[in-house]
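Comment on the following before class.
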Amino acid sequence: MTIETETTASAPRNLTFLRTAAAVQTLTLLFQASTAGLLLTSSRGYWLHDLGSKVMYAAAMLYLLATVLDWRRGGGSPRPALYATGFLLLASAQVALGVAQVPSLHVPLGVVMFALSTLALACAVSRGLPQRPAARDAVQ
């Protein structure tokens, strides 16, 4: 009984870190999209976008760490960690395209990254929630 209590108590903490990391990553990408628009209208836009890129990259590394810890401690599937690794590679490409000033690839990749991060956040939030019964099970 004690073992079950310890396992149950540690699971929400791991999920909280995973959910927080996914939320931070998604919010930093939203910030990047906002500052990309500022690049067109303000002299401070470049500075904010440059700073945001560093924070976004750190957030992608934090999310990778959270998925690896969740996998290793929780005993779950390594698939989210593989996805987070791929996302970090996309973030590396995004930074390289930004430095090389290739907006024709930089901007669409940013949109794809925001969509993928939002999907990862939705998966992290929905994980561990109680399952609702299917409609056919509720009728019977």
Q: What stands out?
A: The radius of gyration is 18 Å. Confidence is low (pLDDT under 50) at residues 1-11. The CA atoms of residues 26 and 117 lie 5 Å apart. DSSP finds five helices and no strands in the chain.
